[in-house]
Amino acid sequence: MGNSFGTLFRISTWGESHGGGIGVVLDGCPPGLPISVEEIQVELDRRRPGQSKITTQRKESDAVTIVSGVFEGRTLGTPIAMQIPNSDHRSEAYSEMKERFRPSHADYTYQSKFGRRDYTGGGRSSARETAGRVAAGAIAKKVLKLGCTVDICSYVERVHDITMPEMVEFPSFDLVEANPVRCPNPATAALMEERILKVRKEGDSVGGIILTRVRNLPPGLGTPVFDRLEADLAKAMLSLPATKGFEVGSGFDGSLLRGSEHNDLFENRDGKICTITNRSGGVQGGISNGEELYFRTAFKPTATILQEQQTVDQEGKETVLVGRGRHDPCVVPRAVPIIESMTALVLVDHFMRHKGQCDSFNFNNLQV
Amino acid sequence: MGNSFGTLFRISTWGESHGGGIGVVLDGCPPGLPISVEEIQVELDRRRPGQSKITTQRKESDAVTIVSGVFEGRTLGTPIAMQIPNSDHRSEAYSEMKERFRPSHADYTYQSKFGRRDYTGGGRSSARETAGRVAAGAIAKKVLKLGCTVDICSYVERVHDITMPEMVEFPSFDLVEANPVRCPNPATAALMEERILKVRKEGDSVGGIILTRVRNLPPGLGTPVFDRLEADLAKAMLSLPATKGFEVGSGFDGSLLRGSEHNDLFENRDGKICTITNRSGGVQGGISNGEELYFRTAFKPTATILQEQQTVDQEGKETVLVGRGRHDPCVVPRAVPIIESMTALVLVDHFMRHKGQCDSFNFNNLQV
Amino acid sequence: MGNSFGTLFRISTWGESHGGGIGVVLDGCPPGLPISVEEIQVELDRRRPGQSKITTQRKESDAVTIVSGVFEGRTLGTPIAMQIPNSDHRSEAYSEMKERFRPSHADYTYQSKFGRRDYTGGGRSSARETAGRVAAGAIAKKVLKLGCTVDICSYVERVHDITMPEMVEFPSFDLVEANPVRCPNPATAALMEERILKVRKEGDSVGGIILTRVRNLPPGLGTPVFDRLEADLAKAMLSLPATKGFEVGSGFDGSLLRGSEHNDLFENRDGKICTITNRSGGVQGGISNGEELYFRTAFKPTATILQEQQTVDQEGKETVLVGRGRHDPCVVPRAVPIIESMTALVLVDHFMRHKGQCDSFNFNNLQV
Amino acid sequence: MGNSFGTLFRISTWGESHGGGIGVVLDGCPPGLPISVEEIQVELDRRRPGQSKITTQRKESDAVTIVSGVFEGRTLGTPIAMQIPNSDHRSEAYSEMKERFRPSHADYTYQSKFGRRDYTGGGRSSARETAGRVAAGAIAKKVLKLGCTVDICSYVERVHDITMPEMVEFPSFDLVEANPVRCPNPATAALMEERILKVRKEGDSVGGIILTRVRNLPPGLGTPVFDRLEADLAKAMLSLPATKGFEVGSGFDGSLLRGSEHNDLFENRDGKICTITNRSGGVQGGISNGEELYFRTAFKPTATILQEQQTVDQEGKETVLVGRGRHDPCVVPRAVPIIESMTALVLVDHFMRHKGQCDSFNFNNLQV
Predict the structure, then answer these.
(1) pLDDT digits (tens, 9 = 90+) for D9-48
(2) Is the ipTM of this complex over 0.95?
(3) Which residues of D fall within a CB distance of 8 Å from C299?
(4) Element of type H or E holding D215
(5) Is the pTM of this model over 0.95?
(6) Which residues of D touch B353 (CB under 8 A)?
(7) Which residues pair with D82 in a beta bridge?
(8) Which domains are seen in chain A, by residue range?
(9) Closest CB to A355 among C31, C77, C355
(10) Can you tell me the distance from the alpha carbon of A150 to that of D278, in angstroms, rounded to the nearest whole number?
């Protein structure tokens, strides 16, 4: 329980960071969708460790295999099982973890909850688990690409205290991918990269904020009162390792405005009902309103740092732990494809729940 | 679909603001729990309109009835159905709403999704729906009270730009309830109340932030990887009307710190494993760690304002709408018991999911 | 938990037989469906006690109220709450039940599971609970009626050892309703009625078998591997009080045939792929194949009899109990609308799960 | 959707008969349970093809791998992923199936539902899918073995028209496994084996009935009104390929008795509340009553026969098909471990749902 997500387009992930591998089963994917291992690998490569000098140097090819549910290049409508072996174990680097709880990791809480844990690595709490989400997310993205005109773009808006200026235009995929930080403002990206390299050198880490924008979303997605679109997105984002906050539209700062300043007035733009402003962030009453959907996700600094820290051992005795091994000094750049994947999974699920109630999604196109 | 919440302690709410009433069915409540209508009414009265001069003057007694699941003062283990009639309709005040979409309300999105809506009021999107949640939350609170030593306290930390100073001690229920704003700092509360009355006079509205704190939570609650404790709380909070953000622990500001500043180091405090700081906010890896759980929820300013606003009608023709009727100039004070209720529902659900894996909750005590 | 049924068209029932009433919340009904209290009452009247001389004489008008989800005669797409008050309590008739367990009732098992029970009647285990199912089933039937050409017909095929001859033609609703037994063979019905009256006079009871037939079902309904159409039907039927068996198509007797006798060979009938025989009963591999769907449900004799029976009391002391009060000497005739309701609920749920994958159901027609 | 089963102890199966393999993810298994690949393999070997002369001669070692969720020989409390590669493809034997629908198989219905299918074999509809269920069932059996004293025994009661005499004693595992038919009456088993070999020689097939008995089940399992113990069992059994019927206790024949003959009177047997007879089959009102739980599952004759049969091709043109390849002339003997597995899965799920409400299951013992 707790390892599945989604109602009609549903993923179940499995795997520990240093066990036999990582995987996902996707149940509910419509039949006839053309999908290849290569398309999925592209997304996994964006998440993969060792992809640039600002990420962990752990060597994992993260080569995915589709074991079921796809036949002659198309989905069968049956569960799609995908898996990624763990190749670069190096568990010895983690030997101290067996006895000592790493601060701000999940070692202590997993031990408390389950009475045991796979101490050769982060186990199930490792961000490695998200590889399965990205593999399923790649299929969700393909569904969106063929079925409608929705565009999802996540990018790094802030690293530590370096924030990019507001960007009105919707950035292209290439612009985001043009630098290892995945910030579409090249000047800010350079500063961010510099900062990340600096903290790495100091054995430290930083966090940041990712902005996600979705355009061309039709009105009508979301299922109040509990499965509001933003509620499901909030859960999706807070289910990711290292996230500490979620806000949609005006978010926390929106509470600084008055109603007369915050309300999004309606207008008729070329025959279409639109809002003049978009402080709602594309959702009203839990349902998309046809404006751009945007939300922010906050990440804490990576818990693993290469400095000596006070901690306790399994018996509660105080001791110290010096972080070793390879880690990401800032997880935010690699989190971009993960957040896009979770967003795509939520959107496809809601398109399927909304099926037959609007014409904004053409399920026939999936089989073309 | 979309109107149920929880896995083992599960609520299903129903009702429109101007229909026959509002209600909830709670399935999964353990048998033998002593519960009275009065205990539930206490919580509903905290949410009730017209409770003070800073809330809407809509007259609703919100008198709850228990229709099933309770026998001789104790729960039977069967579904508990509760309902609250709608008494103060005054639908005429809403007559304009039939044709014109209220800005930043859900009129347009409900119309888009469902092709129709109950235009005599907010219908299902009205915050009136949360009365059902509060009724069920009162039972969840009773379960917590008898089964363990957990304390939940929500309070208003900010209204508009008025923020209370940080409060280290855990405020008492009476302190929070001592003023109509539900801010435990009396001086700040006075300023907040003044601000709310001022914007009401101006026909405007403001938002704010609620801080929720939970103490005495044992380690082990939460079910990774998707049903992390903070993920379920995030969903619960973002499923409430007018919420725009959620953050746990250090939240958005946590991303401004370095790992070496942010990590919560462990210590042994009188034989108990604790963290020296608590930037994690009581959860690590999606599981409670025994420290105080705290999170913030951001509310936008109330969408209903008594000013003329540009909008469109059902045919898309531009027009204006002047807000009428009674409304809350600031929903945050009345949202306090709602947030506490959702928190209690999430916690009881996770206690039940964790049952048998720890001794922190004594289910036998429920029947005492 | 355990009081909800369905995935996308989902009911949650509540209520004890002698509490405040009985009810149901239906979540997931498409918006725009025209529905009236009268249409629902028609079905409830078919289930109602006291409808003929062969049923219990308990007086219940079973008058249903729609409390939410319907506005101006059409569904809103929000939860539909319906309730039926309990009027004819007469709990005194049940006073002995407080101390003594009625044989083959659920008194002992509810007491064992929950540690308490509503001893003024059958409580939650009473067949009265099914009134909520029938109310929701009436809406499901309306969905089917408007959206497709499916016909459901259940009828009594056997009472005690009196079996009607095989009926090839699909009986009309009027034919089934022409007699109180709901057996479409008038001669057999007369014998059945006579038998029921005889056992009533003897203070005894009998069981029987209901055959359910569904025609015009398109191929494609059902979701293997677990949510096979027949698996969901089996669960639906076995969730009804007093049922002991379910079989689809050739059923138990099918195991007496060889494969060469049992297989349904395909033919092309006027351009349509059909099977020559239909031992499969309309499902193959868990999915409807376009042939008539048919299945049987077995009911045990009513547990309440007006004879002295050996039993034990709450302390385990052996004693006797003499059944009193009004009961159904045979539940099968009144179970016919209940089984039809459950069938309709399962079918609509599967039509919704299959939405967009076939054109056999026109969701647009629901709003006409 | 449709490929998961269970609420708290939940399996998700995946895989086609001729794709990359077959597998299962088990979510919700308590941590600390000792489990080995060997224990799981034992159950898979009971289901494996080619185990005796009366089963299909398809060569599959069905060697299972545990990929996650088990560490140092014990479960972690995280999802347990298991997989079994497909080794003996021989898809050429199925080449005709690409164009022609096999009678009473799922070729036509899968094609209708999904618009495509893996025509190199039965694909997802193949009974090979049940290997994943048996692997998970082996873990469920281990949970039962350590946590309580429940015994599950399924055996073949009938093959074609050969029925074993009633057996009062609870047969040992060894007695059931003593012959390839899995009928604990050696004389009847010999006749059954003879019959199976005879129909195989004739290129034909037969069906049969499996009786499942569970002893030492405490009262209190089952969650009315929908998740009754027998309702969940009925769904589990009807979700298996080739099943056509389910009955619990007196079943279909129970409807031939009068209430005065059918009711199970209570007695006090050595201080324990028991029933004198057991026509209820161990469940009353959907909840176990502490008596032996027993139910029967009916299987149709195997659809694959080595005879020429009339059918149609994908375009609807009438043609003939001659069954080829290796098949089971009677699936019933191999279905025994599958049914036991599904039974174990249902029981563990209900033990977990009932956790904390009774002491009949000692979850602490799982970790011993």
Answers:
(1) 999 999 999 889 999 999 999 999 999 999 999 999 999 9
(2) yes
(3) 255
(4) strand D208-215
(5) yes
(6) 8
(7) D24, D66
(8) 4-363 (3.60.150.10)
(9) C355
(10) 61
